[in-house]
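Below is how a single chain appears once it has passed through the pipeline. First comes the sequence as given, then the structure the pipeline wrote out for it. We keep one example in the README because the format questions we get most often are answered faster by looking than by reading.
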Amino acid sequence: MNTRKRLSQLLVTSAFTGALLGPAAVLAQESQSEAMEARQSAEAQQSDQIVVTGSRIKRQDITGLGPANVVSKPEIDNTGVMAVDQLLDRLPSTAGFAGSQTSAYWTSNGWGTTQVNLRGLGVNRTLVLLNGRRVVSGGTGANSSVDLSVIPVSVIERIEVLKDGASAVYGADAVAGVVNIITREFEGLEASGRYGVTGEGDGKEYNADLLWGLSGDRGNITASFSYQKTGTVNMADREPCALGEVNGALECFGSSSTIGGRALLPDGTRINFNQNPGGDGDFYETYDPAKHNFAYFPYLNAVSPIERYSVTSFGRLNVTDDIDFFSEFLFTHRETDQIATPGTLIDIPIGAGHPTNPTGDDILLQRRRLLEAGPREFFQDVDTWRVVGGFDGQLPNGWSWEAAANYGRNTAVDGATNIANLERVADTLDTSICGSNGIPCGDYLGFGDLSDEALDYALFTMRDTGGNEQLSLSADLTGELFELPAGPLAFALGAVYRKEKGWRDPDPLTVLGVANTNQQDPISGETTATEGFVELSIPVLENKPFFDRLTIDTALRYSDYDLFGGDTNYKLGVDWQVVPQFRARATLGTAFRVPNVPELFGGVAEGNLTTTDPCSGYGTLPASSTVAVNCRADGVPEDFVQLSNTILTTVGGNQDLKPESAESYTIGAVWQPVFTEGLTFTVDYFNIDIQDAIRAIPGSTKLATCYESQGLSHPFCSPESFTRNPISGEIDFLSAQPVNTGREEVEGIDFATIYGFDLGGLDASIDLNVTYLKKYEVTPFEGADPIVFDGFIGGGNGGYPEWRGNASFALAGEKWSGAYSIQWIGEATDFNAAKGDIGYQTPDVFYHNAQLSYAVSERVSLAAGVDNLFDEEPPYIQSWTDANTDTMTYDLLGRRFYARLRYSLY
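Resulting structure:
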């Protein structure tokens, strides 16, 4: 079905659904965190109770529920961003590995998706909700996290981020916290368009949104259409070449997969064939990395193109005076693609008598890059649906009830061009069959000797299919049981049935292992859970000396999984309003996460991943150093140098995994001093301790840990982890499959200051958030030395700087408004670099963003802004992922400009 026809059908479907069913109203439309509460008037604080993130019980605010951030619609408008992940990435509570548009290393089968990683604990330990309900995983099949890009920014009222475990309230996956995206309840018509471009004139962004809403005595409906298109930024336009340290200086280097072909002679000599177009096809010489390696940055993107449109509707219909019907509808179609370096043929034996072999010896063609075919292009075509429907109402005693069904599904086709069929490559080298029956002969020794006919015969376009599916049925009851001296005892209880399924069917040639790409097995699996929960909010004291109010919140949840049995989790919270100006709070609870479908059922696959070999150049280290002693003992030649920054790595699933469990607690305080109205200070200590943690340790970390252990004693040194070629010393097998590690522990402190005030007749606000990561350690097995993550960066792990922060200043008047924000990423040490190396430690990095808005009339407004105002360049990191830096942490694009026009009719 073509895009235009599909779009027209969706618009009709959405309108029909909205008109007849009334898409679902938003949960918790009026809740606020302490940040928003500081700006509320006394009258607003007395508003009706509502449901807030982190609890099923209706209440007035979330100040006592634990550390939280709220990004409201005005704050979203002040940023001018186009995607949810861009908003969340600026929060100091995020860290580590996550996919984004500027990250080439998206999580498994998740090309083109965007995610959030709270506390750096992993994208699959952050629970993402839409209006308080789960969202189906996104990607190209058998995925483990929500694709945030399916939710248009234009429909968002606010984003509530609860930064502590909430499994007792929401079930599995809420180990690090919860991101709850609340949609707008809108009346009128709003149309907006946005254009953005980088300071280099590339990466153009186009965005158009249409929002319509209607309210009446019988209910309301809000519907939207959003379109986004983002252009390409080539990596070489930001970083011209891959950099490495040589003799104390950074020099360009390339991939050891050469365009002429690197081969190994029987005596161990490496040679390289002709690399000059039109040169002597029989020419070869001793391989020289500086001369022959391939400059590959021009064949990668710093930002890959995305085209996306979304249709949504949310609303409510009054069936009777006491019963409402609600529904939600969301559809997003995404088309993305990424270029990749031309494919490489690996380890092809060519006999001495082969007509294309000029050496007179049997050779092993170790690496031959097929530049004649041009770059590979990866592509994804993804559809995501989500439909929610249910009834809610009130009983005669004032209790509220709700019954709902939530169904989500995404399906995708993805693949890549210019992939070699290894069986056909072998045919072109088989002199007994090539040259007849439509099989051309291929000459792979020397660039330019490979004919178009041989390329057309050997190369194909790989296509995979996959998807994810989620079904959730729920029933809740909440209200007040009876009065206590300090107030009513509130409760919530309910039951949930949830089924999650994922599948992925790789191209048949990929499954057979004859495609020259990452070998993959099909993935298919599902898990089901039946859960029951109860929650109490117990008022203990009120209006007593030093006890203005004391409330204890408890929650208990039992979950029964078909594959893992039962599990019970609890949460206990204390909210102590000491005096009206000072509040103390604490939470203690357990959380758990069962292995998801790709972790359990993901077939074994291989891929070339950025990896640092600690034995590369070890001969220059002191002979007595631990690394040098171990590399020598492992048989690595003294002159060994890693030929490329990637190593073929085995990834995939592990059906022996078991659930992980966690304990978490927070202790904090909120102070609103009497001497300044509108000022709020918060501080919260957090600690999360995960047992039997499911984690795939990156290859670089495994190798560094092994060679730094005395006598190669670490289990990471086992043949199950990696092996080396006994002659060359190169790593020929490296595993990064997920395992149940012994333990992960993270602790730190969140600081926040909120100040709303009047400045010369203008509404002014200052918002400051800082996170100090005191500890993040991974213990791979009981009794092992922990692997320290706090304060480190790179090596495929993402960034874990000890300090992160975000500060913003906003002014708003009748016509003009403006905002200025600063994002701070603290210094960090490279996971794998040695002290004194270039890139061993990164500096503090500050990104400045500014926006100015003007109301032309009551209906028309203009906004213009610039991100990364001072064109801050990302720092060099020795164990970089791409573009000589950590793409999960730093901005690759540089200065960016944007303008937005909005028309509103209320």
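The chain has one domain: 3-232+304-340+378-421+461-604+652-698+736-905.

See the next section for the split statistics.
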